[in-house]
Amino acid sequence: MTSAQTQTNTQARSQAQAAVEGVSVKPTARVEYSSRGHVAILGGPEALEFAPSLQARHKTTVILTHGEETPSTNIISLAGRGLSIEGYLGNFTLSLGDAGKPNHETLKVDLVLDMGESPIVSMPLPPPGYLVCSSDHTSLDQAQAELAEMIGTFEKPRFFDYDASICAHARSGQAGCNRCVEACPADAITALAESIEVNPYLCQGGGVCASVCPSGAIRYVYPSASDMLNRIRALLQSYRQHDGVQPLLLFVAEDDVGLITDIPSNMLPVPVEEVASVGLDIWLSALAYSAQQVILFDSGKVFSRVRAALDEQLRTAAEVLRGLGYPADAIRWADAAQLNAECGAVMPTFQAATFGGLHEKRRAMFMALDHLFGAAPSPAAMVSLSVGAPFGSVHVDANSCTLCMSCTSVCPMHAVYAGNERPQLLFNESQCVQCGICAAACPEHSITLEARLLADPALRERTVTLHEEEPLACVSCGKPFATRSVVNNMLAKLEHHWMFQNERAKRRLQMCDDCRIADIVDDPEAMQQGFIATPRQ
User: Fold this and answer.
1) 438, containing H or E segment
2) CA Rg value for the chain
3) What is the pLDDT of residues 415-438, one digit of tens each?
4) Measuring CA to CA, which residue among 504, 340, 369, 496 is closest to residue 429?
């Protein structure tokens, strides 16, 4: 790149960054903490020694995990008991011993300073107000300064929104998607029977939950995906309008912005709360908006479970891009040393997409994919993907499916559904998130999943008939009421049942509800047996 173009790119980047500032971002709700400074210090002799240095501003209680107790009213000896900690800044509960036993006691505090060899709270991202500290002077001075700042009332953004109606976590006792629970480094997400629950006081804005959610049930709202897309679109539009070329989009955590002082003139930084807060929908949209690469800045501080979740999404992105005929590594990680290196291939130049920010995650992904499909010179209509991708099909074994419709009642996205006029199982692939709940719910084990992307929108949006049968008519009145496979399955299951050992009782299984009840009433033997209704499968 010539020096003149480098200067033009630098000026275009400045203009683009200024343009982004004019894009409004919808505010989010706030989460409030209140701390009066009561701190529990966990440890041995070192905790006893450090406690007096805090007492000028804090109320301290030492939980003595080992060593000899000294005379003090603010010391609780663990004395071999177990210790568990729950809560967050201003609302910690320490539980010592076994609940319901004489050795059990609880302590409510605002802050916890853990000086033990192994922290009691072991999640990668501890709750606000929980500090881990060694006994060296530098660490103690830092802990003292941090604790001094944690007295009072504090606010932070509520980083997420959640729509349980499209959550693919579970339905009717069948387990499905667990990505957000597994990826959250703060353990802020709890799996419930039919949904999840996010603790806003433990959530610290990592955003990986929203990035890995296949349905968009959990959304990042600081900023929202729609606001983020509008900012990216404005950034790239302005950069192009001011004659900038080959734009490379760099997502960088706000805390790491200072590490990227020397970058190429065509690299456009996008500061975000955490790199994990942007995922497949944002990456693909950025490419559709004309970014020639999407780069995730690797500071080396990304938690392993978060990195694993993002790497799985990057694998899906690479497979999709390769299938569309684009460079598979156009979306990639890069550390500080790699920002100035020629790493990864760039996207070809094509007319940028103009769609605005969208609130629905899957709609945003498909808008981006449709644009990339239309701009690609020779895209595949169908792209095979690795298991775990959020796109795919379901297949039904027609020989075993009885059209019981168990799958339709549990599908969180209504990708599989019943026909209106006939016994049919229908499917729309654009809605399927590959959660597997339908397969788990099928009593005949007739359903299998296939991870893939129908890149051609005409194919993806069509309704497909997975299985259908002719309706079976009631042998008494002739009204259609079931399918032959359902009735045959019922006859087979009840073959040895004592209530169905004569031909009249078996014939009732081939009647509609009204005729079945009428026949029972007219059958003295059935009435004597108390046979009022057909046993369900």
Assistant:
1) helix 437-441
2) 30
3) 999 988 788 999 999 999 999 999
4) 369
Residue 173, beta-bridge partner list? none
Strand bridging mode 152-157 / 30-35: antiparallel
Query: How far, CA to CA in Å, does 9 sit from each of 219, 248, 259, 289, 334?
Result: 34, 11, 21, 17, 21
What is the pTM (predicted TM-score) of this model? 0.87
For the chain, what percentages of helix, strand and coil (3-state, to nearest 5) are there? Answer: 35, 25, 45
* Domain total of the chain: 5
User: Could you tell me if 40 and 107 lie in one domain?
Assistant: yes
Q: How far is CA 237 from CA 16, 57, 283, 471, in A?
A: 8, 53, 16, 57
Token look-up 């046993």 returns: 535
139 and 178 part of one domain: no
8 Å CB contact between 332 and 315: no
What pLDDT digit, counting tens, does each position of 287-300 carry?
999 999 999 999 99
| Helix or strand (DSSP H, E) at 418 | strand 416-418
Question: Does residue 180 come out as left (phi exceeding 0), alpha (psi in the -120 to 50 range) or beta?
Answer: alpha
Judge whether 525 and 443 are in contact, CB under 8 Å. no
Shared domain check, 419 and 313: no
